[in-house]
Amino acid sequence: MKNIVAGHEAVTATEFTELALGIDLELFTGSATESAMERAARLDVAHEVLAELRESDPETAAYAESLLRTLPLKTRRPDGRRPRRAVRRPVKGCMAGSAVAA
Fold first, then answer.
1. pLDDT per residue over 73-85, tens digit each?
2. What 3 state SS string does the chain have?
3. Integer-rounded Cα radius of gyration of the chain
4. Which residues of 3-31 are buried (b: 16+ CB within 10 A; e: fewer)?
5. Residue whose C-alpha is closest to residue 32's, from 90, 68, 75, 67
6. 8 Å CB contact between 18 and 27
7. Residue pLDDT, tens place only, 35-52
């Protein structure tokens, strides 16, 4: 059975929610890669949309408000490894601190 909302076929649960409720989930949840300026702008718009939703659809507004309290998932590194920490070790036999008189 296909999930079709307003003539669009929803492939994932997220798409179905977006189509059924008429809200963009990323507007309320954000992305892990957004900058502080992008986050501030997104939250300004999200609060305006939320104010309009409270008047027209209180149930969807409550859901959107709960999304504002969630944190975006951090993106994983492609290879799944942690970055290697650089450790500074003294080099043996190095005379870097001595001066040579000519």
1. 555 445 555 666 6
2. CCCEECCEECCCHHHHHHHHHCCCHHHHHCCCCCCHHHHHHHHHHHHHHHHHHHHHCHHHHHHHHHHHCCCCCCCCCCCCCCCCCCCCCCCCCCCCCCCCCC
3. 25
4. eeeeeeebeeeeebbbbebebebebbbbe
5. 75
6. no
7. 989 999 999 999 999 999
The answer to whether residues 76 and 32 touch, using CB atoms and an 8 Å cutoff, is: no
Residue 91: band (very low, low, confident or very high) from pLDDT cuts 50, 70, 90: low
How far is it, in rounded angstroms, from Cα 14 to Cα 24? 10
The Cα–Cα gap between 76 and 73 comes to 9
Locate 19 and state its tokens. 């189509």
| Residue located via tokens 């709960």 | 66
